[in-house]
Amino acid sequence: MTLPPTASAARASKPAIPLDEDKLPDDLIAPAADIFDASSTREALFSAFEPDATEADIRRITVATLRAAQKQGRATIAEAFAAEPFGARRTVRSYSWLTDGIVRLVFEVATQRLHRLHNPTEGERIAVIAVGGYGRGEMAPFSDVDLLFLTPYKITPWAESVIESMLYMLWDLKLKVGHASRTVRDCLRLGAEDFTIRTAMLENRLITGHAPLAADLEKRLRKDLFDGTAREFVEAKLAERDARHERQGQRYMVEPNIKEGKGGLRDLQSLFWITKYVHATDNVLVLLEKGIFRPEEYDTFCEAERFLWAVRCHLHLAGNRAVEQLTFDMQVEVAERMGYVDKGGRRAVEWFMQDYFLHATAVGDLTRILLTSLEADHTKDAPLIMRMFKRQPKTKPGYAVLNNRLAIEDEDAFLADKLNMLRLFEEALRTGLLIHPDAMRLVQANLHLIDDELRADKEARRIFLDLLLKHGNPDRALRRMNELGVLSAFIPDFAPIVAMMQFNMYHHYTVDEHTIQCIWNLSEIEHGNLNEELPVASTILREGVNRRILYVALLLHDIGKGRDEDHSVLGARIARIVAPNLGLNKAEAATVEWLVRYHLLMSDMAQKRDIADPRTVRDFAKAVGSRERLDLLCVLTVCDIRGVGPEVWNNWKAALIRALYRQTRRALESGMEALNRENRGTEARKLLRAELEDWSAADLRTETARHYDPYWQGLHVTAHVVFAKLLRNIEDDEIEIDIHPDDDRDATRVCFAMQDHPGIFSRLAGALALVGANVVDARTFTTKDGFVTAAFWIQDAEGTPYEDVRIPRLRDMIGKTLRGDIVPREAMRSRDKLKKREKAFRVPTSITFDNDGSEIFTIIEVDTRDRPGLLYDLTSTLAAANIRIFSALIATYGEQVVDTFYVKDMFGLKFHSKSKQAALEKKLRAAIADGVERANTG
Known about the structure:
By secondary structure, the protein is of the alpha+beta class. It has 5 domains: 32-227, 2-Layer Sandwich (Beta Polymerase, domain 2), CATH 3.30.460.10; 234-318 and 337-376, Nucleotidyltransferases  domain 2 (Four Helix Bundle (Hemerythrin (Met), subunit A), Up-down Bundle); 384-490, Hydrophobic Seed Protein; 494-675, no CATH class; 678-936, no CATH class. Strands 8-9-11-10-14-15-13-12 form an 8-stranded antiparallel beta sheet, with helices on both faces. The two termini are 45 Å apart.
């Protein structure tokens, strides 16, 4: 496919790879002879053949000679590409040139030495034709070599022998060959039946062999197969594209497939295919010459093609194989190869991926433009909805409905009023129509109209807020406005986060798409679609909140990301200016600013602090200050977590947020005394007595008297019942275990009762780690008569509870570990390994000591890189330092984990000494470092 570098380049078309091997191309990344010198390689090859050489000798010599030439050629291309990391077009041509040379010499050996015919008949002719991407003259380092062996009639024994010998030699050269042997008639028949075959043959190119046969195929394909069938071909390609996107995910997914994903190379190639099929040319400049693309759109097309091919080539070279998935580890490698560097508080890989997503979005825009042109030419059927004879909605003056899309009647009149740049989206939401691509192009080409004057216009602010608040599906308008650049033009502070990737395993989307996902979740809650799943948030919205505040806060909550400064602090400063500019009054703007500044507060409190500790709820209530802010923050937090990605929100997080909200609301409405420790203990004992009504009074007195106050406030009555039964007749040397699913929390609860001894928490953590369990919450309590009661909530590697069938093995392994039959540290050495794709992440370790967050405990918070065995390492270190762990909370954010421990020293006191804190921090950091070394040497 011919593709000059820009629209201003020469308009002449030339074949990508010359068919005459004696003519050296000038569009390669290095001198053609340095990549593959056909003459000298042929001379070396044929001079090595002895007159009496056997077929096996000839094949062996051919493979050895060509392997050396191939190795040299690949090294030459890779070296030149490394020096010019964006020289993608010339690189893909170079790999095709090298492959052409190899295929031609293999064919020559097969036909001139192995199966020579002195007087071939008409039926003994072969044309070796490249098809697919190779036929287009575009190959990544490890692309497939797709070949069509074309014969005039039914394949002869001679042709069969030639093809077989060629394939064996090409396979010995480690080329991944896709091949077919067909006649012209076969090609026409199969192409009529299968669009994949038809597409491959669309890009056929003669490599070597009988040229008239190849010319006949090209002529017959166009005349008998392609002409008059453009509509069905386009529809097939579009259906294929939709199915591919469904399999691969959206372009906003953070580990995209460079070849098959949305906005990837396959989408660009679809444009090539459709252009060639419809316009009978392999020169994409026809799209410019026919007015389908504007010059700037054509330049965008070329830049996207250049960038995506560069990424794919670097990806293959980095993986030393045909890698198409931009996994996290490969993203780091490719970014480095392409010359990206860390700057502005962001890693090189994040800058690289932002460019990737911007190009992927551009590819989607270009596809839409081409399809509009096809629709206008009646090449593509009108959308399905139009064919269903639905009545078209009535539009306001200045708009029309074209192919069931909202179109602009008079472009000059539209542009004469700047407000129309926003009214278009309002009218689209009002009518429920999709915006016509021509209208979108008009907006995109005139973004300069969105200036300070328009931003300050009261009507413009009204329209924008109505897009969020009035029509019920704000995400649709925001996503289209974002893709066209309108959102960044109207709110310039939004521009830096467009297509911004956060390089971690927690966030599934770019920052801008995450923001839109959050707003979509809010609208879903408002529509009543999540009443059962989100009862608290749904109730809050039904009872009424200031929607202007909530929607604007969600729109701005991550607007400060990607800078050196804390994004919540910077975002709050931005919100202080943007919120009034969007039409919010002073009080509303102040609340938006507060929500942006503290949008992580509720999530952090719920996941990193012990909600059962009255001090946690008291401090949170003081920080929130009012019921209004609590309601707004709760809904924002739910939407924020749900907007991170699929499966991130679960019952565990829901239970934590719900409990924190209800306790805080009670404190705000009834006073802080409602959180009194003693009151909660009295209520808990009362509930236990009700559950154990069949117990004797003496047994109940024994049970309620044996526990200290923290036990009663730290567990639900269901756990109190379990522990009461485990302790009822326990002997000193017994280990009692109860394992049951906790459906309300999407976890399995494991309760232990045994004689207390130092380091018990660490031993329990080691036992659970050995069975591959992830601890998400844990509480340990000591009874007055010397026993320990410990409750651990665990999930499997997929973040789900253990099924009943796996619980016996879980119980057996835990028992063996606690009895000393298995030593956790030794048994876990083989498991402390990180997956390759996870090694690319940098997570700095932060350790803090908090003596104010709890009345009776020191809170140690360890924020570090997650890995297998980490919790055991940390708890072992604490145990060795004679520190007693009373509870642990584990909050995981992809590759990052925050382990929070509520502890006392060996004398039952808090850690106030700075020197003791420093010494303990040093030991914890050493344990983390040792574990990292083990994990990275796997």
